[in-house]
């Protein structure tokens, strides 16, 4: 290999990296332009390729009847999903990483099975079940369904996190007079907390983004995704774009917050 | 606390939760699909499959999956190998490439709507270079090809990241020694990719493909945002049965059909990419 092919190879490599970055960022930039333009500009042609920093579209979004309630519902559902999926999922992740017990294989199968199912479809029968129990059209009912979506991930992620902490650390704590519980809270928990936070954020995003179950299970108390979906046919363009933008922003922040854990989580959850 | 019972106590909440909200609704949906007026019947399935929109929505879903998933796999493999040999700026590039991971399908549909709608950026660009005088309405029934392309692009844009993350994590698990050995024996970069990376990446490829293919059959919101009723898909029809037609039985039957397709493809992928017995990294 001579110097010329090597340098042209490097050029090709750098160019493709930049191209692929642009592929991700440019569509997001277009959405940003539309969000930060006045409603008239959004509906006009041709489009300018720089935003005019007009908050008209966002104001229209905030003033649109029911939109802020939908936003609040989205946050509530995602918050509940986050808490429930960690509280329910993390103990199982700990059990999988620390114990060998009869039935472990079956339990792992159950968890993996849920990943192989189109879970939002389960919202259909749950709609009937919720009407019977009074959970229909409530934020909590939807959070339960979203927790079902998030739980396989929270179990597998916490399993991989706990597996990363040597059992010897816990054993050392036991010999120094800790019980199983205090060894857990004093030694394991501080080490695991950032990872737990990351997987909680992951659960939040799963719920925040979910469309189908949210649209099926809520009528009055729509979440943001369900509200936008329901009004897709009738709402003006600037409302769609502002809504899309509001949907994207938390995702950007959250992915940034968990980026360190993204790969470690998937690497071990794979096996 | 007796250590023998502790693990069972710890997995109890998840097990109960999944029984109540996963297994039980699954049984309910099956019951609903197979019964009409309280009796056992296949009528729901006959109705659903006999409806004129079923073949077209089935075909659309399949075509979309067939067009999108291979491109995503190739793109994710390319990105993962590029990241792997990166020294400077790896974290930043990975962050940018994984951004779509957090973006919902509905938002992705809206983002690509900004490009393809009549007063959108594609028309603006084409006018700027003088290719057109007046904006064309790409997303109409006259342009079924462009509607398909827009939906496929939005899906590729959004969901390649999940495969990328799984593959990057998988490549990270392959010991560097294998590459060094291959290099010593004079293997070219391409040979190293096909003979070392790909075979050792099999478990990750399996996970990534299963996850992606199942999600591809569930495509719904991207289509709703970009194609509306122009491009019927299975999940959209399910939603329509439940909401517009208020036919729970038919919706349940559709759900089971989507489920059956998902399971069939999961089994095919698992079988095609199975890891030989006893082979570990």
UniProtKB/TrEMBL annotation, chain A:
Residues 71-258 form the ABC transmembrane type-1 domain. GO terms for biological process: transmembrane transport. It is a multi-pass membrane protein. This is Trehalose transport system permease protein SugB. Belongs to the binding-protein-dependent transport system permease family. The lineage of its organism: Bacteria, Pseudomonadati, Pseudomonadota, Alphaproteobacteria, Rhodobacterales. Keywords: Cell membrane, Membrane, Transmembrane, Transmembrane helix, Transport. GO terms for cellular component: plasma membrane. It comes from Pelagimonas phthalicica. Pfam families: BPD_transp_1. It is found in: Cell membrane. The chain crosses the membrane at residues 12-32, 75-97, 109-131, 143-167, 187-208, 237-258. The gene is sugB_4. It comes from the Bacteria.
TrEMBL record, chain B:
The keyword Membrane applies. Residues 58-269 form the ABC transmembrane type-1 domain. GO terms for biological process: transmembrane transport. CDD domains: TM_PBP2. It is found in: Cell membrane. The chain crosses the membrane at residues 59-80, 92-115, 146-174, 209-231, 251-273. The keyword DNA repair does not apply. PROSITE patterns: ABC_TM1 (PS50928). InterPro entries: MetI-like (IPR000515), MetI-like_sf (IPR035906), UgpAE/MalFG_permease (IPR050809). Keywords: Cell membrane, Membrane, Transmembrane, Transmembrane helix, Transport. GO terms for cellular component: plasma membrane. It is a multi-pass membrane protein. SUPFAM superfamilies: MetI-like. Belongs to the binding-protein-dependent transport system permease family. This is L-arabinose transport system permease protein AraP. It comes from Pelagimonas phthalicica.
